[in-house]
Amino acid sequence: MRSPYRIPLLLTVVSMTLALSGQADQNWFFGWHAGIDFNGAQPLATNGAMNVAMGSATISDASGELLFYSDGIKVWNRSHEVMPNGAGLLGEEYVTQAALIVGQPGHCGIFYLFTSANAPSTDALRYSVIDMSLDNGLGDVVAGMKNVLLANPMGEKLTALRHGNGVAAWVFSRALLGDALYAYLLTEQGLDTIPVISHVGQNTFLGCDAGFLKVSHDGTELFHLGPGCQIAEIFDVDAAVGMLSGAQDLFMQYDLPNVLISMEFSPNGQFLYFTQYIPFDSTSVIQIDRATGIRTILDADFDYQGHGDLRLGPDGRIYVAHQIEGFVDVIEYPDLPGAACGFTPAGFALQVPLVSYQGLPNNVLPYTMLTLDLGNDTTFSCATEPFHLFVPTTINGSFSWQDGSTGPTFLVDTSGTYSVEVISLCGSAIDTLLVLSGDDEVDVDPWSGILPNVFTPNNDGENETFPLLPVPMEKMSITINDRWGAPVFRSDDRSLLWNGKKDNATIPCPDGVYFYTGSVQYSNTCRMYDRPIQGVVQLLR
Question: What are phi and psi of 123, to 5 degrees?
């Protein structure tokens, strides 16, 4: 039997719309168990399980809650416990950018963790995949997707940049030797392990492995620092193809001192901030105004183990690691020149007795999250089969449809209002869709309910049986009685009709009027009808 409702594939899926989670950078973990929580009106000192001298990486969900963090050797979940498969990563200690976390576009809860090692090492640049649906939602490294080798030998430098399409991501690393910068593309389909290679800037050699790659906050420039070989250069970035060009030698352009430790862009890109190291003497923090070329020393610390990495926080301030101290320095207004930038020594106190070392967490791209779009309110034709709305399986979360059902799909088989709410680590979203019937057949009964009132079973081949049905029937039940109420025919078979004989056997019934009662079931393309039937029919030969 046909379904009573038939709707076409006008709305095939709950479509995906890519948005960006702006809370990915809300938690930092670094140094000796130190941490900063940026979720409040003011940052809050917190603590973690990691003890790391230099580079680390952290990631938070769409509401700013911690997901996990790593030093390139282990991965800790939001409960500050090592993930079940989160130990034994082949990064190494004392690496400037030991780890980088990038969310896979279009896959809520899937993250790529890139790790680097001390060069020259056979464990130079690798990645592992973390699925936050594993371990009861605490996340774990996916079996078979751990410590996958990308390139060797490579330097200790890792950063990421959003693709020009606003969805995919480029992951940049620097070859250990020569002038090659590698760009790996991460898309909804996964990681392309064949890099885009730019030969640009100065050649590096053994001893140049440490340092940083950092992207300007507008995504148009990439900075490369090689402290061991006095390299500080900026390239233009073509985010559509991952290529670099137009190298600027900052040492020559701004007469920079040696040795530089780290660098950060101001939010507006006009100012460059450096930490400088004078061996066995002192460290300092320097601002360069790119518009005027003016160099300002913001702070000098006559402890040669003083200042370390610089990093722009989600609150718009730049934080400066301070070696073996219970604080980090802060640049309050990094878009202002000279002393107006508000450099504040010991501007943020860490939890006692936790201390900062040389590193701060690597940069975090706002990762792609999914919002829902059920489409526009629509009308449908009911000439085809029902269809399903579905939440993409790339969402790790809970679902609630308008009727309270919680599956990832919902069958649409009639007019009505349909909605779904999704709650996930990438955020929450709800959308509603009104589906209306637009088929003229929906409210049109294909049969008027009138049966013929005469039939002539005289073997002439015309009008030989009763009833003569004007539309195909799904079911039929009929009883025919003579004028005295005696039954002459009864059938529950839609194909068995009365031929004018007693019980359709051999004895012809006499001409005259007969009475019938019963019911029929039939449909148009959208609706099933159940109707009683009754009336009289005259038998003539």
Answer: -105, 40
Could you tell me the two tokens for 503? 């019980």
What are 278's two structure tokens?
């004078």
Residue 519: count other Cβ atoms within 10 Å of its Cβ.
14
In this prediction the pTM is 0.74
Q: 477-494: buried (b, 16+ CB within 10 Å) or exposed (e) per residue?
A: bbebebeeeeebbebeeb
Give buried/exposed letters for 375-385 (b at 16+ CB in 10 A, else e): eeeeebbbeee
For the ranges 4-18, 223-237, 388-402, 511-525, which has the lowest average pLDDT? 4-18
Q: Quickly state the pLDDT bin for 205 (edges 50, 70, 90).
A: confident
- Write out pLDDT tens, residues 20-33: 556 899 999 999 99
Confidence of residue 234 (pLDDT cuts 50, 70, 90): very high
CA atoms within 13 Å, Cβ hemisphere of 86: 24
List residues bridging with 79 in a β-sheet.
none
Sign of CA dihedral 496, 499, 503, 506: negative
Count the neighbouring beta carbons within 10 Å of the beta carbon of residue 51: 15
> What kind and span of H or E run contains 421?
strand 416-424
Please state, in angstroms and rounded to a whole number, the distance separating the CA atoms of residues 347 and 331.
Answer: 8
Question: Is the distance from CB of 273 to CB of 318 less than 8 angstroms?
Answer: yes
Sign (positive/negative) of CA torsion 77, 78, 79, 80? positive
User: What letter does residue 262 receive in the DSSP assignment?
Assistant: E
Q: How far apart are CA 209 and CA 279, in angstroms?
A: 18
The identity of residue 110, as a single letter, is I
The structure tokens listed for 275 are 């930490």
Q: From the centroid of its chain, how far is CA 263?
A: 31
Residue 56: CB partners within 8 Å, gap ≥ 6?
Answer: 29, 30, 50, 69, 70, 71, 72, 98, 99, 359, 360, 361, 362
* Residue 282 neighbours by CB under 8 Å, 6+ apart: 300, 301, 302, 303, 304, 306
Type of residue at 281: D
Q: Which of 216, 249, 250, 233 is nearest to 174 (CA)?
A: 233
Neighbouring C-beta atoms of residue 115, cutoff 10 Å: 29
State both tokens at 472.
């195909």
DSSP secondary structure letters along 162-200: E-TTSSSEEEEEEESSEEEEEEEEEETTEEEEEEEEEEE
The answer to whether residue 7 scores a pLDDT higher than 50 is no
Query: Among candidates 49, 93, 37, 95, which has minimal Cα distance to 75?
Result: 49
| Average pLDDT score over residue span 339-352 | 96
Look up residue 514 and give its two tokens.
């007969």
Amino acid sitting at position 62:
A
Q: 321 burial class (0-12, 13-18, 19+ CB within 10 angstroms)? A: buried
pLDDT score at 443: 52
Q: What is the mean pLDDT of residues 455-466?
A: 90
Pair of tokens at residue 509: 């019934």
Region of 135 on the Ramachandran plot (φ > 0 left; ψ -120 to 50 alpha; else beta): left
DSSP 325: B
Decide if pLDDT at 381 tops 90.
no
